[in-house]
């Protein structure tokens, strides 16, 4: 909170916090701070978005408690889940309008124009990915662009450090999105050896230079 104005909570993927925890965060976080939260694996990996209503109700209650500190709900689909427009559309239609959602699609079958149009109809953001073995598709489907930087493409996922040239390239992309009127949330997930913090700090410097 001293340096950054947003964070992506990853632990929620493994154990969804109680509503009281979201309320405490809302009370403790600065007014301008935004917390994005990764959807539970019970929804994304166990159920694979099938019959999502119970989880949608639970997430919505927690999101209500976070109130004006909420950022984006990240829905990371498992890499084995192939394209299923009907299932994705059913899930997105169940979410309240005030839940801003981004969907990370790792299986290559999702990267089709019809899928991007489906996301756009629900004002859902396509999650732009960077990392080894991941397709880096610079697609925007909503007023908000969500970027996850998992590490340089020539390294293992969640490892390695982005070079200054690579970070400058991402800074240029972020400026382009912002000039187009889009809000950008970008998070580093290459947290081995503290690279995520260092890379995030450097990206902020480049954006403000």
Automatic annotation (TrEMBL):
Q: What's the superkingdom here?
A: Bacteria
What is the residue range of the signal peptide feature? none
PANTHER family linked: DUF72 DOMAIN-CONTAINING PROTEIN (PTHR30348:SF4), UNCHARACTERIZED PROTEIN YECE (PTHR30348)
Q: Under what name is this protein listed? A: Sensor histidine kinase
Organism name? Knoellia aerolata DSM 18566
